Amino acid sequence: MNTSTTTPSLTDSTIPLLQRTALWPNESLASALERLRQLNFYTHRNLLSTVGRERLAALNIEDKLDQPARLETFQQLANLTHLTLDELYAASNQRFAEVVTPLEQDSQKMPWLDNVLRPRLEPRWAHQHLRSSAAAQFCPRCLQATAYHRLNWVPRAVAICLDHLCLLADHCPRCGKHITVVEVVNQHCFKCQADLRHTPQVSILRDKRGIQSQQVIQSWFKVANSPDEVIAVCHFPSSLSCVLYPLLCLIAQQLLKGQAEWPNLPRPLNDLATSIKVIIKPHQRLTSTQAYHLYQAAFTGLRNWPNGLRQLLNAYRDCDNTNARSPSRQSYLCRMQYDWLRSDWQTSPLAFAQQDFLDYVLKRGLPLMPSVMDHLQDVPWFIERAGLWTQGQTSRLLDLSPTDLHRFYSYGSLTNCLIPHTRTREPRFKQAEVLAVKQRWNTGWSLKDVISWLRVPPTDVLRLVEIGLLPIDGVWVGDDEQGLFNPQIVKDFFAQIVARLKPWPDAWCDLISMSRAVAEVDWLGVDLAVLVQSVLAERVLGHQRSPQIESLYHIYFSQAAIFKLPDQIYAARGWIAGVKFAYEYGFPAALVHDWEAAGSIKSQLSFGSHCYFDQQQLKELAAKHGFLSPVVQPSRKRRT
User: Fold this and answer.
1) Which residue from 225, 473, 484, 508 puts its CA 20 to 30 A from 124's CA?
2) For the chain, domain boundaries
3) Average pLDDT rounded to a whole number, residues 71-87
C-alpha cells in the first residue's frame, strides 16, 4: 500500500484547507491567500484561485478570488478561510471604492447581508488608482520585520513607508523586474532570486513637506492615521476624502499633461519654481519615486486652497504676483480650462474647484476658450464671476434684435464690449461694459452709435444733420460719445429709406452702387446725403439687392437716373442747363453763350461745357429774341 503524501491535483475543487490563519495588520487579501497556500504546502501558486473559480462557475458567477467583486465570492472565501465577510471586505481592494470612484459617477453598490449595500469598485477605477498584484511595491525594512504585503502599498498615490520614512520599492534591485504580491510575500524575486529585504532604501526623513503629503493621502485611503495638527495646517477646501482625493488626482493629471512643456515637476517647497527632474513618459506606469514627486507637487496645489492652486499655476506659468501675463506656456492653461471648466461639476461637490479656477483665469487676464463659454453660458455662477453675456442676453438688455446688435459690435459702440478671441457667430460680451452702454443710451445715441446703425462714415452722418434729415438734441461739440440723437428717430429714418427702395429687377439693367453713384456726381456737389434726400423725395429710384440691407451704401441706382439727377436737383432751384434750354426752345446753344458773353445773363454754376442759368432769366431773353415757348421735338426713328 502506497502511503506517500501527494499534492492535491488542480482539478480537485473540494479540497479543504488543513491550516488557516488570521489576517495580519493591514494585510491585503492577495497576501493572505498566498500565505494560506504556503501554510498548506500547495506547490501550485494558482491552486486556490482555480478552486475558487470552479466553485463560482458552478454558481454561474465569473469573479476572481483575490479580487472579489461579488457577495458570493466573499462567501466562498469565508467558507474557505473561516474569516468573516467584514474582515475579507476590509482586506480587499473594495474598501477603496468610495475614495477612488469619481464623484460625478454613480457608484455601484454590492448587495450584502441583511439587505445592506456596500460600495463596489469598478475595474476601470481600480486600474487607474490602484496597483495590481502583478506590479506591487514594498518597504524592504517592513519585509525584514514580517514578510507580507500591506494594504497601504496598494494605492498608486502612496509612495513612502510612514513607519520607516523611506520610498517604497517597486522593482527588483538586481534585475529591475516588476515585483508581484506573491514575490513580496516570498521576499525574493522569482527571476533572479534577489532578496527583496536587501533592496537599497531612499530616505525622505528630511523632506517634511513630502512626509506631510503622504500622511494625508494615506489617511484618505484609511490605511494610516494623519495627526490632527497636520490636517489643521493644510487648510483644505473640504474635510471629505471623497472630495479631496479626486481633486488631488485632477491636479496631478494636469501636471502630467504639461510634461511636453514642463518636463520637470516642481519640488513643492516655498520656491515652487525650483524643479526636480522627474521625467514621466506618456502612458508610463509611475514608479514610486515619480509618484512621490508628482503627488507631492499636486498636494501643494491643494494646501491652503485656493492660494495653493494659484501659487502652483503661477509657478508653471513662470509668473509671480507682479507679472500678470506670461509670454509662454499658455496652451497648458487652455487644456486645463477644457478639462476643468467643461466638466459637469455644477451639481457635484467639486463645483468650487471650477469657480476658483475661473477666478484665477480672470484675475490673470487669460482668454477664456469659446468652448468653455458655450458650456457654461447659462450657469449662474459663471455669468456672475466672468461677467459675460451671450448675444441673446445682450440683445434683450439693449432691446435689439441679434441682427441689429451686430451693427454695433462689428465696428461700433459695442466693439469694446466683446471679449478677446470671441467667436464671430457666438460672441460674448463684457457685462459691465454693456451696462455702461445701456446707461449712456438712456440720454441718446452718440455720433458713433448712428454711424454703427447707418454704416456710413461720420462725415456722411454730419451731412445728413446739416441738410435737416437727422435732427439732433443740442449742439455737437466734436465728441463722438455725445448723446445727441434720438434712437427711435434714427431707426425710423433708416426704415423710411428702406421703405422707398424697390426690389432688384429681374432683367439686366445699368444699376450702380451708392459709392459709384457718389463718385459720378460728386463734382456737382451731390454726395450720399443728397442722394438719400432724393430717394426720400422720390426724385430718384433706389433699389435693394437683398431683402434686408444693413447700410446706406447698400442702395443701388440706375446709372441713367443718376446722370439726370443734377438737372432734377437744379430744377428745384430754378436752374437749367443752357444747352438743354436751347434744345427745348429750338435755337442754337451758341446763342446762350453769346448772351453770357454780352453780360445779359450770368451762369449760376459752370463745369466745363455744362453751365447752369436761372431759368426765368433765360425765358425772358428768349422771348425778346422771338422764342416764346418750347417747341415739340421730332421723335427719333428706330433703325430697322
Assistant:
1) 225
2) 29-129, 154-177+189-316, 337-441, 478-567, 573-624
3) 90
